[in-house]
Give the backbone structure.
Amino acid sequence: MPTLRFHAIKESLAYKPVRVEEKERRSDLFGKNVFNENTMRQYLTKDAFKGVTNAIQYGKKIDRSIADQVASSMKDWALSKGVTHYTHWFQPLTGSTAEKHDAFFETIGDGMAIEKFGGSQLVQQEPDASSFPSGGIRNTFEARGYTAWDPTSPAFIYGTTLCIPTIFVAYTGEALDYKTPLLRALHAVDDAATAICKYFDKNVKKVSSSLGWEQEYFLIDKMLAASRPDISLTGRTLLGHSPAKGQQLDDHYFGSIPNRALNFMRELETECMLLGIPVKTRHNEVAPNQFELAPIYEEANLAVDHNSLLMDIMGRVAARHNFKVLLHEKPFEGINGSGKHNNWSLSTDTGVNLLGPGKTPMSNLQFLTFFINTIKAVHEHEALLRAAIASASNDHRLGANEAPPAIISVFIGEQLTKVLEELEGVTKGKLSPQEKTELKLNVVGKIPDVLLDNTDRNRTSPFAFTGNKFEFRAVGSTANCGNPMTILNTIVAKQLKDFKIEVDKLIDKKDLKKDEAIFNVLREYIKSTKSILFEGNGYGKAWEEEAKKRGLSNNKTTPEALKAKVSKQTIALFEEMNVMSRIETEARYEIEVEAYIMHIQIESRVLGDIARNHIVPTAVKYQNILIENVRGLKEIFDKKFNSVSKEQINLIEEISSHIEGINVNVTKMINERKKANAFEDIEKKALAYCNQVKPLFDDVRYHCDKLELLVDDEIWPLTKYRELLFTR
Ligand code: ADP
Ligand code: MG
């Protein structure tokens, strides 16, 4: 009897849920472990407080004496909460978060010791960068790197450690993390958007980008997950026959949350509250054991940090509830995958959401300006936006027959489509007073009402306008949102910058009034961006053909999609917007291509191992039982032997053919891996892994899954889909 599977099932059935008590109100818990504005007011001198808030709001430098004061106050606050260590917390390009803990404790001679934390330790640290991905930057320059304090994301306490959010850069200044380019992109979009806002309101001094992510995940019993080598090593199942009941009945979506999962969520949410992560909604998703968690949106840099932190905490809290969290985009074949919708908008320091309609025609013209410029930005850079969400694991959603598709398009709804149609008819050049009035009253003026019934939400669109924000739905559930947010904010910044140049030119050269000039430029944008707008069902053959005619890219695999990250256009874009230098852009590309190769390589090895060393021996064992049975039948039957043993003999043959199928394909896969590994060029290697190695997964899996249906359940070694998905 395969002990691990049955042991795991037994344990999981005997499991008693952990009791979770919520004694305090959430609003009281909120931000308790964060060195936030409230805490700073309490602990900092007036000068230090002002220094930090200026840095947060306007990017002003913090001088050394202020940093010393802040460090010392942070330490006092942390010590008062039983903290012993501090760490610079950062997000290297491995995709997870990194930290190296140092104690506050220091000896001062004569057998005495104190707790110490100065400005220099707060501001900068030098972790050894050589074990983090650097994409060649390391070779070109030096192995050393440093982390530097990001005052715009507040320090927090996790466990007994004070965590200080930092950027991570090479000694020569190149970014080695997700945060550095994100901060630069946010700066770029702030500059460009603030300049546009001044057309409408001179008081605007700053525009921030906001992000509200929706994190989907699966919760699987820890023992059951541990019994599967594929889940343990790759985060997904590489084989397994679909269960008789899957998600056909849709009885999980928004259903009552099972108790054990609910207890996990409550504890997770309490942790989030303490860390100032404003989580608000939780619900069941479409697939069995699939759930979603979403916060109230925040400033994008903070939201990205919070999502990275959340993904880390989820795993730790899950362990206490005997769960394993699967963040993978496609843990189970034939079952819905997981994504992470990125809800995005821009808002001013005067409190206006630039993607929400306003009360006056002028504020609605401002809304239209940002709305249409965003569409234009996506139109110009659709391939790059696709590249922003490319990964080996997200390919299972985007390239496959599941919404959203690999083709980027924008959904805006019927009503706004009509508004754009009206605006397209605006006269070229100067507008007559009648036309202006007509526009203000009947087009621009009506937008708030239009948006109120913007209910026809298209769930399959990868980039949809949903009332007062755009929702980038193609982001993968494992992704660090920093990557797509850097790209989205950069392309919008570039677009707004170009828009301003065009409008100003019309004002100066053609002597148009400001709003006339804006209408004129927007009209041209509407005309030239039609190919990106799509209201239909976002996947399937018909749309693929249509998209091809429109000239939209349809890169189904990561190696193909990633190329847009190093196109001439992209390199120039990042350089112009001061988001990444050519070296940084190219290094990142190399890191992502290499990550892709490694993912497929690991999956291929794990699959080969399971198929040959778990499945084949089990099949042989079962075949031997059948052979023994046939021998016995031969002994006791004479004439009737052929008819009574017919099915057994068929089974024996069928098993042999699947064993052959496995062995032949695993051998092929190993050979293809060898060939792929021989490529020096990483692009060629990635393509070989993608097009030669990966397709063999399906062939190996096919025979394994067939055997699962043939072999006696009692001796099947791998925990089955039904056990993984329906154990509560
Ligand atoms: P759904 O998409 O499931 O219908 P909601 O529309 O309520 O859900 O919002 C989903 C997410 O969008 C939430 O995280 C919410 O905070 C976020 N969100 C709402 N308004 C904005 C905004 N202006 N900018 C960014 N995110 C927003
Ligand atoms: Mg959503």
